[in-house]
Amino acid sequence: MVHILHNTNSIANVFLAELRDQEIQKDSLRFRRNLERLGEIMAYEISKTLDYKPVEVTTPLGVAETHLLSEQPVVATILRAGLPVHQGILNVFDRAENAFISAYRKHHKDGTFEIKVEYLSSPNLEDKVLILCDPMLATGQSMYLTYKAILAMGKPKHVHIVSLISSMEGLEYVKSRFPENVTIWLGAVDDELTVKSYIVPGLGDAGDLAYGVKI
């Protein structure tokens, strides 16, 4: 199942517009905060799909009946651009366990590149709910290779893929390769992917905009 926030008018569209705006992007603090706020919105939407159990909460004046999460998810992010989104999700699921994966494009002289996964830190994922986030879903290869790598830590019972801007090509790639127990949450989907695998209109390099240009 695929959920695209941009298809419904909400405050999320304001944050997405600010992420794309080349003038607002000059403020890296604001850029990171918008990534974080969209992470919070995604987490809230995901929370509606999780399992809950009835509980009683004792107040100073009596007992209130409510429902709380049956279990906490594991929040995983692809370094480095995913960190603000991860924090936003963690602001909502503040008792969640966490996982971190290093994946990057290793470019070759002929202009091609391959995805390298070099680092993984994760709790046991067996039969847990996993939220895997990365702000951009360009080709979809990083997301898929990260997912394959993290399965070494156990097979989740359900996976929520979170990305703020996706290309249509990347979305179709992920849909064709992930199993049925995966839900995809996107901020917006753009039609074009350049020969260098950049999303157009996209927003540029999310990692550089959030944390500075890398060598």
Main structural class = alpha/beta
CATH second-level architecture? 3-Layer(aba) Sandwich
Overall pLDDT: 92
How far the N terminus sits from the C terminus, by CA atoms, comes to: 38 Å
Query: Please, how many domains?
Result: 1
Taken as a percent bin, the fraction of beta residues is 25-35%
Instruction: Count the E strands.
Output: 12
Low-confidence stretches: none
- The general outline is globular
Task: Provide a count of the helices.
Answer: 6
What is the H-and-E element order? Answer: EHHEEEHEEEEHEHEEEH
- CATH fold title: Rossmann fold
Could you explain how this protein is built, in words?
It is a single chain. This protein is an alpha/beta fold and 215 residues long. It has one domain (2-211): 3-Layer(aba) Sandwich (Rossmann fold), CATH 3.40.50. It is 31% helix and 35% strand. It has 6 helices and 12 strands. The chain has helices at 11-20, 28-47, 83-92, 141-150, 168-177, 206-211; strands at residues 2-4, 52-59, 62-69, 74-79, 97-107, 113-121, 129-133, 136-137, 158-167, 182-190, 192-193, 199-200. The strands form 3 sheets. Strands 1, 4, 5, 6, 7, 8, 9 and 10 form an 8-stranded mixed sheet that branches. A two-stranded antiparallel sheet has the order 2-3. The radius of gyration is 18 Å and the shape is globular. The protein starts with a strand and ends with a helix. 36% of the residues are buried.
